[in-house]
């Protein structure tokens, strides 16, 4: 059994790394669909049929009496992304209860990196664009794991398991920070009565799932009512998704003093909803959020010289990796734990650059900060796309240069000399640690 690591990025357990690999495969497919939806949106918004795109975006659907007469764009942002954040809530709780975040020795690195990756780009944005659009400070603080994994899939790099796990855990903590920022800083007109009313269906949902009742005809109506009441309260409705995810139990029910062999309810829901989130919710959100009329070279030049856009690009391409690397380096120094053998700081730099691929949540925060269909929001979209693509290209170049070394590390990680089905590295107490002095 692997004990508390004496190095940064030493492997976890065989079961945990296998679970992470399974999640990343699903997110990679979702990342491909996300990229496709983004391309379709940009083409649609910049061709002769662009008027149909913006008309569809502004089409209202839903009952006005229930405050749900939202535009198609609002349904995509407030509704579909609630599914994304529900899955993020499930994953975050799973990490804290049974994953890497349960162990303080392992949690400290991705948590510190996530905070560093939030603080530095926010400060850099404020230095550059604080006088023009201070409300946009949170736009360059998010990481889009699906987009980042799509980049890894394209360049076909053999990224070691420890770095893949770090990237996923960093993105999960990023999601928690993002939803906290949205709830605290982007709630303009709070209606406490509606928020209090939302506690009733949320509490009933919690009671049912804690009793392992998974009937969709009970849980889905309660989830929808919770979402609609949170939406009416003025708090962004995606917060409801995280709260519902936190309510689901992680551990399997004990049967006569023994653990049930079946997966816990959180894992069951994650298997059910992750494909919907990655394959439908996020790509459709991208389809209705990434479309922006660029206006040719003059429009592109105007957008990219806007201090808001410059601040976002600088935050994603420079601030995000600098924050992640600085926090990780300080953690290494304070805990006196070197990098796992075979890894170097340039390897972590490539992963940190992937952290600058901030797409889905960055677009959402941009709409909340500046309002949809505004000139500033258009510049935000162009900047998020430009910054994310730049960070992705830089990360791809750096990681591809190290791919031969990554292949050797992966082969070492997969070696199973005793042929028991579990790689030897997971049966050592401190795998790949340097020898003690």
TrEMBL record:
InterPro entries, sorted: Na/H_antiporter_dom_sf, NhaA
Keywords (A to Z) from UniProt: Antiport, Cell membrane, Ion transport, Membrane, Sodium, Sodium transport, Transmembrane, Transmembrane helix, Transport
Pfam families membership: Na_H_antiport_1 (PF06965)
Reactions catalysed, as given in the entry: Na(+)(in) + 2 H(+)(out) = Na(+)(out) + 2 H(+)(in)
Chief localisation class: membrane
Keyword Nucleus part of the UniProt annotation: no
GO MF annotations in UniProt: sodium:proton antiporter activity
Residues passing through the membrane, by range: 28-45, 108-131, 137-155, 167-186, 192-209, 236-252, 272-296, 308-330, 351-370, 382-399
UniProt-annotated location(s): Cell inner membrane; Cell membrane
Region of interest called Disordered, as start-end residue ranges on this chain: 417-437
Membrane topology per record: Multi-pass membrane protein
Cellular compartments per GO CC: plasma membrane
GO biological process terms held by the UniProt record: regulation of pH
Protein's job: Na(+)/H(+) antiporter that extrudes sodium in exchange for external protons.
Family membership: Belongs to the NhaA Na(+)/H(+) (TC 2.A.33) antiporter family.
Entry protein name: Na(+)/H(+) antiporter NhaA
Record organism: Nakamurella multipartita (strain ATCC 700099 / DSM 44233 / CIP 104796 / JCM 9543 / NBRC 105858 / Y-104)
Gene (name only): nhaA
């Amino acid at each position: 059994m692997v004990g508390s690591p004496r190095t940064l990025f030493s492997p976890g357990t065989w079961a945990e790394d296998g679970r992470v690999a399974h999640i990343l495969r699903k997110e990679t497919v979702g990342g491909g669909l996300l990229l496709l939806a983004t391309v379709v949106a940009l083409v649609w918004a910049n061709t002769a049929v662009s008027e149909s795109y913006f008309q569809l975006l502004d089409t209202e659907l839903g009952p006005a009496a229930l405050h749900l007469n939202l535009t198609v764009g609002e349904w995509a942002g407030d509704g579909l992304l609630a599914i994304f954040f529900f899955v993020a809530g499930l994953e975050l709780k799973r990490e804290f209860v049974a994953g890497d975040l349960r162990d303080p020795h392992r949690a400290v690195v991705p948590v510190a990196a996530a905070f560093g990756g939030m603080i530095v780009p926010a400060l850099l944005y404020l230095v550059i664009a604080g006088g023009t659009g201070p409300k946009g400070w949170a736009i360059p603080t998010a990481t889009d794991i699906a987009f980042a994994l799509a980049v890894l899939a394209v360049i076909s790099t053999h990224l070691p398991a420890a770095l893949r796990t770090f990237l996923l855990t960093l993105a999960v903590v990023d999601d928690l920070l993002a939803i906290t920022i949205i709830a605290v800083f982007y709630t303009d007109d709070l209606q406490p009565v509606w928020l209090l009313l939302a506690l009733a269906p949320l509490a009933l949902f919690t009671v049912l799932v804690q009793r392992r009742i998974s009937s969709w005809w009970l849980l889905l109506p309660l989830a929808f009512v919770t979402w609609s009441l949170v939406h009416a309260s003025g708090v962004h409705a995606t917060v409801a998704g995280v709260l519902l995810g936190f309510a689901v139990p992680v551990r399997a029910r004990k049967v006569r003093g023994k653990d049930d062999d079946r997966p816990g309810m959180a894992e069951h829901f994650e298997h059910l909803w992750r494909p919907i989130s990655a394959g439908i919710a996020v790509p459709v959100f991208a389809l209705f959020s990434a479309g922006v009329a660029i206006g040719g070279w003059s429009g592109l030049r105007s957008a990219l010289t806007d201090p808001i856009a410059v601040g976002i690009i600088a935050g994603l391409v420079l601030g995000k990796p600098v924050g992640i690397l600085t926090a990780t380096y300080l953690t290494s120094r304070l805990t006196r734990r070197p990098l796992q053998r075979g890894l170097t700081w340039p390897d972590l730099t490539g992963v940190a650059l992937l952290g600058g691929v901030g797409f889905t949540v960055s677009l959402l925060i941009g709409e909340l900060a500046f309002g949809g269909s505004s000139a500033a929001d258009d510049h935000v979209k162009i900047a998020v796309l430009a910054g994310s693509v730049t960070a992705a290209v830089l990360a791809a170049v750096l990681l591809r240069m190290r791919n031969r070394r990554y292949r050797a590390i992966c082969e070492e990680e997969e070696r199973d000399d005793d042929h028991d089905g579990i790689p030897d590295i997971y049966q050592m107490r401190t795998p790949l640690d340097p020898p003690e002095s």
